[in-house]
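We were asked to recover a plausible sequence for a given structure. The inputs and outputs are reproduced exactly as logged, with field labels preserved.

PROBLEM: sequence recovery
POSITIONS: 401
GIVEN STRUCTURE:
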């Protein structure tokens, strides 16, 4: 007799089938038929406002970015068919790393094929046997998976609790290697980390610090480097990890650092070595976008205006939100269960608005969320339209009075 290895998924399959049998659409089966701009797409033949992308700075359709990608596609072809350490480093990968070094003002930059792989690679490689990784309980899956791939001991602290971080670091052997892993913005609730206090505590215990700025790059801090820059702790963060799949508007991941031995990672970091490098067109779009983000003050200001307006409007309507005020470009609407979340999600979609649903295990403490993420290219009118849709769909589904 063969034991079906898929039987472990039966619970999830049954739960999904029961939900879809109520007649709702599958929130995880959306197809964009055509993308019209950073803020609009055709879904099921209907023009829909996008409020569930990570296109924070609206760079996906930037004419210079698109032109750079086309040029690289013509000149260098569709792909590298190789690892960065063999035949897969083109001039464009170096230019992309140069753009990152300039953006972050660091000596070193390494580009990975995704942000997920950047976390996987950095965390599993620099924290080894006998070392400790101390991470926030609400860390992104790529951080947890980086821990699983490596051999270090893993210690979790309560989400955003400086006191708990201090307590747990204090229990570790003084001489042991320690890596504290933090995120600037936590993407489920859209809250930011108290980095100033956390960095002070980590330093007190002699730990190195890695900060994931996936959701902070582009619009926090004087140069748009992230929450760590705004918190004034740039000199104390050892490694900043980021992605090209959000503000940069394409795909890829990176780590920047001033560590004098950083370049050895190109030889020892398995998720860098044992995978193909990014296509030339992708690194060309990324480099162009990163350079443009250095001068994107107006876009940043408009993104913040949009986030604050949406947060205030939703709160005034009676929605329960993930944060008291808009802390980032992510605004999480908290629902009671999956049925309510999907009902509101579908109501919004039918009205012409796409948002993301999120459920455990991605969310903290079993929460069901509709996650809204704003774009610098959303116009004031679009934000008002979005609020109107939330008002009618919220009333129709009984989520708000
Ligand atoms: N870190 C965080 C905090 C993220 O939210 C994400 C993606 N959602 C990643 C890393 C991975 O980025 P990528 O999409 O480039 O794999």
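RECOVERED SEQUENCE:
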């Amino acid at each position: 007799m063969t034991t079906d290895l898929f039987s472990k998924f039966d619970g999830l399959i049954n739960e999904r089938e029961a939900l879809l049998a109520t007649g709702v659409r599958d929130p995880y089966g959306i197809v964009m038929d055509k993308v019209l701009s950073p803020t609009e797409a055709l879904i099921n033949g209907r023009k829909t406002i996008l409020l569930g992308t990570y296109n924070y700075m609206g760079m996906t359709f930037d004419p210079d970015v698109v032109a750079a990608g086309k040029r690289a596609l013509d000149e260098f072809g569709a792909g590298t068919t190789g690892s960065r350490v063999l035949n897969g480093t083109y001039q464009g990968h170096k230019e992309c790393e140069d753009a990152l070094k300039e953006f972050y003002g660091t000596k070193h930059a390494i580009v990975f094929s995704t942000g997920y792989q950047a976390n996987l690679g950095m965390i599993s490689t620099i924290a080894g046997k006998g070392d400790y990784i101390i991470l926030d309980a609400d860390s992104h899956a790529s951080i947890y998976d980086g821990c699983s791939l490596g051999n270090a001991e893993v210690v979790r602290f309560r989400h955003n609790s400086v006191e708990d971080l201090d307590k747990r670091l204090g229990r570790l052997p003084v001489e042991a290697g320690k890596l504290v892993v933090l995120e600037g913005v936590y993407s489920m609730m859209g809250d930011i980390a108290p980095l100033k206090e956390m960095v002070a505590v980590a330093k007190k215990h002699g730990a190195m610090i890695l900060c994931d700025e996936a959701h902070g790059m582009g619009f926090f801090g004087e140069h748009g480097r992230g929450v760590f820059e705004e918190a004034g702790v740039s000199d104390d963060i050892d490694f900043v990890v980021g992605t090209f799949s959000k503000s940069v508007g394409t795909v890829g991941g990176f780590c920047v650092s001033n560590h004098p031995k950083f370049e050895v990672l190109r030889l020892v970091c398995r998720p860098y070595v044992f995978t193909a490098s990014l296509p030339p067109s992708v690194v060309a779009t990324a480099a162009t976008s990163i350079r443009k983000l250095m001068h994107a003050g107006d876009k940043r200001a408009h993104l913040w205006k949009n986030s604050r307006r949406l947060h205030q409007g939703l709160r005034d309507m009676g929605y329960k939100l993930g944060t008291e005020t808009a802390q980032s470009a992510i605004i999480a609407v908290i629902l009671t269960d999956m049925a309510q979340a999907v009902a509101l999600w579908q109501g919004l979609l039918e009205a012409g608005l796409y948002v993301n649903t999120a459920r455990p295990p991605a969310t903290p403490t079993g929460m069901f969320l509709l996650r809204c993420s704003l774009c610098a290219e959303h116009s004031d009118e679009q934000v008002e339209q979005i609020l109107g849709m939330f008002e009618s769909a919220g009333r129709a589904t009984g989520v708000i009075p």
